[in-house]
Specification:
Blueprint: H1 2-7, H2 11-42, H3 48-70, H4 75-93, H5 102-109, H6 114-132, H7 139-146
Length: 150
C-alpha cells in the first residue's frame, strides 16, 4: 500500500512518483498548447462558436486525458493544465485585456473546469464499479486528494 510506504520514511518513492506525474503533465500540456496555437493561427478570423468547437474537439481531449490519467495533485500541475484552458477562453472570446475575468469568460462559454471534469470522471468510475461488480482500491486516490502539495 502506497501510504504505508510513505509513512515508513520511504520519501524517495514519493518524490519519484511526483516527478513522473509532473513530467507527464508537462508533456501533455505542451502537446495541448501546440494544438491550441495551431488553432489560433488557422481559425483566427472565424466566429467564436467555430473557435470553441475547434478547441473542444482538438485540445480539450488532451487536457481531460491529463486530468483523468495522471490525476495531478500538485497545485502547480493543476494550474498548468488550467492555464491552457484559460488562454483558449481568451482566444475564443477575443478578449486579451488584463482586467477581464477569465473565469467569467469560461462560464459564459459553458466550459467546466478541469478539476470538475476530473471529479466527475472519478465519481463515474466509482458508480460504474459499484454497478458492475468489479472493485478497486482507492486509498492512493483519496490520500492525494486530501492534501494540497505545492
Amino acid at each position: 500500500m502506497y501510504v504505508k510506504i510513505i509513512a515508513s520514511q520511504r520519501w524517495d518513492v514519493f518524490l519519484r512518483h511526483s516527478v513522473v506525474i509532473s513530467v507527464g503533465t508537462n508533456m501533455l500540456t505542451a502537446k495541448a498548447t501546440k494544438t491550441r496555437n495551431f488553432i489560433c493561427r488557422n481559425v483566427y478570423c472565424c466566429p467564436p462558436d467555430t473557435k470553441a468547437t475547434a478547441y473542444i474537439s482538438l485540445v480539450r481531449p488532451h487536457l481531460e486525458y491529463a486530468a483523468a490519467a495522471w490525476d495531478p495533485y500538485l497545485v502547480g500541475d493543476c494550474k498548468q493544465l488550467e492555464k491552457v484552458q484559460r488562454r483558449a477562453a481568451c482566444f475564443v472570446k477575443r478578449d486579451y485585456r488584463s482586467m477581464t475575468s477569465v473565469s467569467s469568460l469560461i462560464s459564459q462559454l459553458g466550459w467546466q473546469t478541469l478539476s470538475n471534469c476530473s471529479r466527475n470522471s472519478h465519481l463515474s468510475l466509482m458508480y460504474k464499479s459499484s454497478r458492475s461488480g468489479w472493485y478497486f482500491h482507492l486509498t492512493f486516490l483519496s490520500f492525494f486528494q486530501a492534501h494540497s502539495f505545492s
